[in-house]
């Protein structure tokens, strides 16, 4: 008998919505189907505007975007179900990450804000929806992020021991798994700064295969200036976001390099992402035997090559261990919803820095309430 969950993820790259339908029966994790709904350019711009730390925003814009994204998340689920010909009744629950508009775990009143109203998802699809998955961990003094390390441990440690998983989305995060401990934290920028820079200079959404970065030359002075940022020196637990590694961050750092060709800046940003990931692997996972990569950055061949050059051990894709690298985050949120409905903790509290394991999220019942599927 199948045990079906849907994971919904929209990450810091603001590219669109990932929806994964996952079967967890027999303690397995099988991706049955996947659907991706890309955001239009104008929607991306409006979301970017909402998550600019320096700009005032209207509460009305915030509220209507919460509704608009809730509807888009629901639409994505319906499109996914249509593909599979499965009914809403056959799905146990949806785990919805929402879209992070601001992450401030270190502020005086720490918070992490995800939007995409889960009431609308549950009402429209009829499926019980688990959402708001970060704030319970923050309430327990944690960072509220990253949350995927618990899933990485649960799934990938069946196949391996002594390894790292690196997710390279807008922000990059790492999970270190060995016999003695499991660690997980954000290493810093993944693709977000490279995406910004190529959008500004070449009007492209991302640096396809890393070809533009490869065409430039790394500037060692600028690289040192980037790496000088205090975030990289912080000990875990730590997490960050694109409100910190922002266009302002980059523009401020490159101010002193007005003559530098734009492709050299891209090359230096790519090196920064690679080096900060591998410096953390060397520091926190010195005896790891393999690094598995997932997230959109795995398609940036130049970046993956730089990572592999920096490491002494092999670098592979999570696809080699059963999960397509573009699916891992959505699958993890399906798993987190299941954890919550099973009354199990979802946070790896030593990774997030919380003071205890926590059952994460709010539950928005589907058409059948909480007693049955859907
Ligand atoms: N072919 C490609 N070549 C280079 N980079 C790519 C390619 N395809 C995707 N990417 C990069 O991957 C990014 C999307 O990655 P992903 O979907 O994992 O991010 P996310 O889930 O939004 O982020 P996060 O994990 O931080 O929440 C794109 O913005 C782009 O920078
Ligand atoms: C606040 C927030 O949305 N953080 C994201 C982001 O994207 C990557 C990294 O920064 C990670 O900390 C997290 O996402 C993954 C899914 C996580 O929580 O594990």
From TrEMBL:
Matching InterPro entries: Anhydro_N_Ac-Mur_kinase, ATPase_NBD
Domain of life from the UniProt record: Bacteria
Enzyme's top EC category: transferase
Residues that, per the record, bind ATP: 11-18
Pathway given in the UniProt record: Cell wall biogenesis; peptidoglycan recycling; Amino-sugar metabolism; 1,6-anhydro-N-acetylmuramate degradation
Molecular function terms, GO-annotated: ATP binding; kinase activity; phosphotransferase activity, alcohol group as acceptor
One of the GO BP terms on file: amino sugar metabolic process
SUPFAM superfamilies per UniProt: Actin-like ATPase domain (SSF53067)
Reactions performed catalytically: 1,6-anhydro-N-acetyl-beta-muramate + ATP + H2O = N-acetyl-D-muramate 6-phosphate + ADP + H(+)
Assigned keywords, A-Z: ATP-binding, Carbohydrate metabolism, Kinase, Nucleotide-binding, Transferase
EC number annotated for this UniProt entry: 2.7.1.170
Keyword Kinase attributed: yes
NCBIfam families the record matches: PRK09585.1-3 (NF007139)
Functional note: Catalyzes the specific phosphorylation of 1,6-anhydro-N-acetylmuramic acid (anhMurNAc) with the simultaneous cleavage of the 1,6-anhydro ring, generating MurNAc-6-P. Is required for the utilization of anhMurNAc either imported from the medium or derived from its own cell wall murein, and thus plays a role in cell wall recycling.
HAMAP family noted in UniProt: AnhMurNAc_kinase
Similarity field: Belongs to the anhydro-N-acetylmuramic acid kinase family.
Name the UniProt record assigns to this protein: Anhydro-N-acetylmuramic acid kinase
Protein species of origin: Methylomarinum roseum
Encoding gene per record: anmK
């Amino acid at each position: 008998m199948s045990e079906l969950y849907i994971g919904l993820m929209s990450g810091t790259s603001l590219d669109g919505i990932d929806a994964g339908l996952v079967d967890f029966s027999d303690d397995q994790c099988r991706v049955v189907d996947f659907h991706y709904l890309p955001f239009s350019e104008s929607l991306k711009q409006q979301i970017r505007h909402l998550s600019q730390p320096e700009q005032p925003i209207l509460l009305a814009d915030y509220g209507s975007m919460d509704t608009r994204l809730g509807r888009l998340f629901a639409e994505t689920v319906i499109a996914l179900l249509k593909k599979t010909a499965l009914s809403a009744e056959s799905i146990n629950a949806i785990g919805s990450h929402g879209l992070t508009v601001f992450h401030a775990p270190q502020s005086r009143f720490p918070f992490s804000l995800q939007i995409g109203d889960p009431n609308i998802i549950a009402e429209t699809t009829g499926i019980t929806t688990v959402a708001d998955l970060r704030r319970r961990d923050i309430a327990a003094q944690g960072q509220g992020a990253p949350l995927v390390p618990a899933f990485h441990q649960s799934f990938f440690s069946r196949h391996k021991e002594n390894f790292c998983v690196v997710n390279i989305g807008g922000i990059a995060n790492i999970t270190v798994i060995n016999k003695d401990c499991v660690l997980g934290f954000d290493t810093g920028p993944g693709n977000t700064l490279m995406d910004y820079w190529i959008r500004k200079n070449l009007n492209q959404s991302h640096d396809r295969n890393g070809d533009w970065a490869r065409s430039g030359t790394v500037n060692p002075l600028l690289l040192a200036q980037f790496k000088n940022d205090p975030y990289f020196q912080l000990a875990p637990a730590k997490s960050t976001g694109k409100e910190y590694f922002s266009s302002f961050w980059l523009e401020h750092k490159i101010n002193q390099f007005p003559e530098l060709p734009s492709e050299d800046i891209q090359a230096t940003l790519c090196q920064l992402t690679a080096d900060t990931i591998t410096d953390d692997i060397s520091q926190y996972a010195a005896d790891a035997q393999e690094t598995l990569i997932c997230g959109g950055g795995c398609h940036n061949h130049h970046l993956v090559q730089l990572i592999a050059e920096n490491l002494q051990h092999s670098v592979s894709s999570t696809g080699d261990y059963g999960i397509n690298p573009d699916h891992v985050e959505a699958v993890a949120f399906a798993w987190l919803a299941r954890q919550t409905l099973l009354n199990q903790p979802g946070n790896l509290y030593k990774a997030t820095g919380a003071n205890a394991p926590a059952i994460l999220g709010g539950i928005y019942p589907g058409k059948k309430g909480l007693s049955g599927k859907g």
